[in-house]
Amino acid sequence: MRYSAMRVLLEGLTGNRGWKPVWRDPEPKPQYDVVIVGGGGHGLATAYYLAKQFGQQNIAVLEKGWIGSGNVGRNTTIIRSNYLLPGNEPFYEFSLKLWEGLEQDFNYNAMVSQRSILNLIHSDPQRDAFARRANAMLLAGADAELVDAAQLRRELPFLDFDNARFPIRGGLFQRRGGTVRHDAVAWGYARGADSLGVDIIQNCEVTGFNIDNGICRGVETTRGNIRAGKTAVCVAGSSSRVMALAGMRLPIESHVLQAFVTEGLKPLLPGVITFGAGHFYVSQSDKGGLVFGGDIDGYNSYAQRGNLPVVEDVCEGGMAIMPMIGRARLLRSWGGIMDMSMDGSPFIDKTHIDGLYFNGGWCYGGFKATPASGYCYAHLLAKDTPHPTATEYRLDRFARGHLIDEKGQGAQPNLH
Description:
With 416 residues, this protein is of the alpha/beta class. The chain has helices spanning 5-13, 41-52, 89-100, 102-106, 124-139, 149-155, 182-195, 239-244, 308-321, 370-383, 397-400; strands spanning 31-37, 59-62, 78-79, 117-121, 145-148, 170-174, 178-179, 199-201, 206-212, 215-221, 224-233, 252-262, 272-274, 281-284, 290-300, 330-341, 347-350, 356-360. The strands form 3 sheets. Strands 1, 2, 8, 9, 10, 11, 17 and 18 form an 8-stranded mixed sheet that branches. The radius of gyration is 22 Å and the shape is globular. It starts with a helix and ends in a 16-residue tail after the last helix. The model has no long low-confidence stretch (mean pLDDT 95).
């Protein structure tokens, strides 16, 4: 069934009796050409592009919980491509271009809203750094716009321009950035993959890998053994635990990242705004709530919950640039498990075990990367060569000394 305005009208006139389930609930088959471990945004996108772009037919996605229960439903919904380094910027710009045509591509309303993203500038050295970043973005084919404080006063008069400690001296705009409805992305990719014949198997946890003479033959699950020609892992914050089942140790730490939403307010923020002197980012949802987040918790954890010191730190960052939000009441918070790599950049690569592939280490950037991650992972699985925009996302780059250190923070995942 294709969705359209006419279909909505007809169903409304006939009592909405013609709608069908968005995807099937199949039993796992004993063997697939490709088994994708992880039913989040990246896994579902990989299955979708593998079927649509590369003609693969016999594919399964295994999810230990339900679709949308992981990080794809636990983020702040921001999309952007305002990166600096050549190993990153082309990839994220490719992702943003996929976002721009996503709803028409998989025939689902993901509520893609290119309402802009603004990174505030608070010092002269920061202006120089953002000018360099803007030039790198323009060279990679992205859009970038440096603005001064006078223009921001006209566009965003509610910001605290008189803050002596964090004076606002300008900002870096990416007007094509914005937000997307996170769970709709999961549902849209799941529906699209299912319509192409992909089996989406929920409540199916992988408990081991069948490895014979250095070749991965499939996976062991709570619903039985499943053989596979290729096994592709993309499980975000659970990467270290799952890959340990194959005897691999990854350059990844797992941390909790909290996010928050306030009560519904009248339209206030035109786009996404980030604090340049701390870690705070905020946008306003279609329901009116302010959706914001900041730093990860300062300890390793696999729990999808956070702690109060981070709540205080994030709210302080918001108050520093917009004191007015101190009057808003916090509605709820949630946590997602971040797979923090040692240089802040991800991996899309084959492992040393034949037939076993890995996608992870997305740090804060997992949601915005969803379309490109799926497309590039599908390209790797289909052709056994990396996509041109993902050639640097190798697992061995630390051994080779080819780090992609976007922030220049070194091997400290908590700072990325």
